[in-house]
Amino acid sequence: MLDMQNDQTPHIYKGIPSEVSKLPLIKKLQSYTLYIPSNVYQKILATCNYAPTKEWSGVLFYKTKGSFEKNTLNIECVDFLIMDLGESAFTDFVESPEIISYMVDNDLLDCYTGLIHSHNNMNAFFSGTDISTLLQEGTTTSHFVSLIVCNKGPYVAAITRKINDQSKTISNCSYTSFKNKINTYKKIEESESNYIEYFPLIVECES
Which of 5, 56, 116, 161 is most exposed, with the fewest beta carbons within 10 Å of its own? Predict the structure, then answer.
């Protein structure tokens, strides 16, 4: 999704991602909180009630407090913009200038953007397609938030974090040389690995 703070190129969200990243995707045990205030929660309920048999999707606007480093990250939903009323098991949309216009008109330019979509009559859960979307979108932005809602039952959400792990390993080496002299030296090996982490979010709704 479009990330204003990280100046990312807009992407196409599809019910089935068009291209899946080759980076590993690792689920973390640490959970953080996503808070949905009453006005946003009522808007979600109204949308589900308006299209109870259809999956729908749109742009989620959110703000953050705290940090990963201190295990204090909290995410608050500020608003969302419906982009597509799809079919019973499919929804997609292409990001458009309409999103920026909505952000300007509703004072949302200081928000991050993620994805909200519904599972209508099914429970809210991360399907294989939803996991692929985390990987695809998490590859191209620092963090990607996905919120999945449904007509009944609890919601689920997750946030990604892109990791570039650059590490050095120092080894103490030795060899026997001329006149049986033992020589020692330090060998430094550098390695780099890239992967995507995703963290479950505990969704709290204010009724």
Answer: 5
Cβ–Cβ < 8 Å for 51, 85:
yes
- Helices marked H in 18-156: 38-50, 97-105, 128-140
Query: How is residue 171 written in tokens?
Result: 């080894």
Query: From CA 7, how far away is CA 10, in angstroms rounded?
Result: 9
Of 117, 136, 124, 111, the C-alpha closest to 198 is: 136
C-alpha to C-alpha distance for 109 and 60, rounded to whole angstroms: 13
Could you give phi then psi for residue 129, rounded to 5 degrees?
-65, -40
Asked if residues 205 and 155 have their Cβ atoms less than 8 Å apart, the reply is yes
Per DSSP, the three-state class of 2 is coil
**Who contacts 71 (Cβ-Cβ below 8 Å, separation ≥6)?**
30, 32
pLDDT averaged over every residue in the chain: 86
One-letter identity of residue 191: S
Predicted TM-score of the model (pTM): 0.80
Dump the DSSP string for 129-174: HHHHHHHHHHHHSS--EEEEE-SSS--EEEEEEEEEEEEEEEEEEE
CA–CA distance, 7 with 133 (Å, rounded to integer):
19
Q: Give CA–CA dist 142/3, Å, rounded.
A: 9
